[in-house]
Design goal:
2 copies of one chain form a homodimer. Chain A has 298 residues and is an alpha/beta fold. Chain A folds into 3 domains: 83 residues, Orthogonal Bundle (Arc Repressor Mutant, subunit A), CATH 1.10.10; 97 residues, D-Maltodextrin-Binding Protein, domain 2; 101 residues, Periplasmic binding protein-like II (D-Maltodextrin-Binding Protein, domain 2). Helix content of chain A is 43%, strand content 22%. In chain A, the strands form 2 sheets. In chain A, strands 3, 4, 5, 6, 7, 8, 9, 10 and 11 form a 9-stranded mixed beta sheet that branches. Chain A has a two-stranded antiparallel sheet with strand order 1-2. In chain A, a hairpin with a 6-residue loop joins strand 1 and strand 2. In chain A, helix 1 crosses helix 2 and helix 2 packs across helix 3. The interface between A and B is medium-sized, with 34 and 36 residues. The structure holds a DNA duplex (30 and 30 nucleotides).
Chain lengths: 298, 298
DNA sequence: ATTGATTAATCGGAAAAAGCGATTACATAC
DNA sequence: GTATGTAATCGCTTTTTCCGATTAATCAAT
């Protein structure tokens, strides 16, 4: 069991490397300059190599110093995470939680679910960010978000997923449309129509096509909607038909519009709603409970 | 800047979680039982949550305790790595180094290079392991190897690669073969022959085929060699022709065999020799110097 | 039930460390 | 030169860390 540097020493190192100034680094660490200076020297003695060049009037970290400072940042972050894990274990449903949501879920699910969430978890401070899946996952990876509420299937990286349930697609078409008013629409019905979809980047676009076993390549791209509300308007104006998730219909997205809605036959085309988080996250229990609380609203 | 646990406390936690016994854990940490006991309590106070269940006579870690112990192991390992990085910066070419080598490089390159390496880097303790690329990379990932000497192209993960140079393929055929004794062989020449290759799993098999722009699918698989030496014997016995890297020829693999060797025309088919290591490795400078020292032997 | 053995927690005091303020040493700017 | 800004050093105090001894609790054997 070798002697290793203390986190305190590493914190000092990081502070100096960041600022190239002992005095300021000491202030940032809330210790005196002499204390910090001594700490750095201990570290250099222990490692047996210089970490800082003190020539001239300025301090410059050596290559080794920079390398070790980088690694130290990681270690310090890991130590902070320990605190987070413990805090989350003590009170899973308290504190700030940064949640990402995609635009085809957020506006429909959250207005219904949030009041109940606030009541059930009064100490939870929920910060929401709405964006497309890819960008939310970037932020999740970067640690800016704690979890993301999105639609599956989607090629996720090394994340943990909690499946919250399915969300079926229905066909929305103009009320005076020639489609026979039978119970359910078939993929063939849709294939013969002018199918309106969200613009590229929305996962719903690909998921809807895949779920209905339709080819996306030869789609009419002249009429791409920027939101599900836009799409509904476009259908009401007779521009074509569209696929709409049940969640949006439940939220009344076609209320007041002169359109008709039909379920789809057969394999019950749907997307799945999932809550995902980093495999290393400190708050898995928090997410699990959050997911359970959201489930009834699907 | 929050208060975080000390590495010392984390070491205590890991020791207890591993052994479920304060006394043994204390002994393993070279401290008294009272010291360790106090350290654990500090940690529990700091985190505000119990890490160990002390009911009955036995100690059982809580779920949180296990989780934190896992994370702590990572942090402690990271701290040890700091020491390694510093040590490697002080004396790059000293200490133990576990190097993996593939079978189509090791037996030809190392006998020539090792004496010189030993002389140039007398303090380097080189431990060698010979295996196929895929398995070496697994061990590299697991931290059992520090670096791997292999042949490219190969689909590597997130590794750093140092290119050491190219290694050309030549055609080896029986001395009495009908091939005209022109200077160089073409891919077409080879395509019409019974081409002998190493058995599956050897990267050389695919690399040779790719470099010569030959399709591998319809190859005769009845005669797969288990080593380049075997292949050379098979050619001498008139079973077909084969592709041999220059490195093996230089090492005299066909010496005493009744075969002929011809270079290949055109795009000079070759594999590249590379030294790879983990992007997070503590000893990049060591590997760089090692690579430079190996280069002249290609 | 009593005794003995094992184990973790607790306590008092010693040793080590971490920290501070003041001072020194050094380089640069004026 | 002198003033200024900076890091290193020194003496001293406070805090932390650690140990050995003791206590309290549990379990096993009698």
């Amino acid at each position: 069991m070798r002697t290793v540097p203390t986190l305190r020493q590493l914190r000092y190192l990081v502070a100096v490397v960041d600022r190239c100034h002992f005095g300021q680094a000491a202030a940032a660490c809330n210790v005196s300059q002499s204390t910090l200076s001594a700490g750095i020297q201990e570290l250099e003695d222990l490692l047996g190599a210089p970490l800082l060049e003190r020539t001239k009037r300025t301090v410059v970290p050596t290559a080794l110093g920079r390398d070790l400072a980088d690694r130290s940042r990681g270690l310090l972050k890991g130590a902070e995470e320990l605190m987070d894990v413990a805090q989350a274990a003590r009170e899973p449903m308290a504190g700030p939680l940064h949640l990402g949501v995609i635009p085809t879920i957020g506006p429909f699910l959250l207005p219904r679910a949030l009041p109940q969430l606030r009541e059930t978890f009064p100490k939870l401070q929920l910060y929401l960010r709405e964006d497309q899946t890819a960008r939310l996952l970037e932020r999740l990876d970067a640690g800016e978000l704690d979890a993301v509420l999105l639609a599956l299937p989607y090629a996720l990286g090394d994340l943990e997923v909690m499946d919250l349930g399915e969300d079926r697609f229905s066909v929305v078409y103009p009320a005076d449309h020639r489609l026979p008013a039978t119970d359910a629409a078939t993929p063939a019905d849709i294939a013969s129509e002018n199918l309106l979809l969200l613009e590229d980047g929305h996962c719903l676009r690909d998921q809807a096509l895949a779920a209905c076993e339709l080819e996306g390549a030869r789609r009419n791209t002249a009429f791409n909607g920027t939101s599900l509300h836009t799409l509904a308007q476009m259908v009401a104006n007779g521009l074509g038909v569209t696929l709409m998730p049940q969640m949006a219909l439940d939220a009344g997205i076609v209320r007041g519009l002169d359109v008709a809605v039909r379920p789809m036959t057969g394999s019950a085309p749907h997307r799945r709603i999932g809550l995902v988080w980093r495999r290393t996250s400190a708050r898995k229990e928090t997410f699990r409970q959050l997911g359970e609380a959201l489930r009834p609203f699907l």
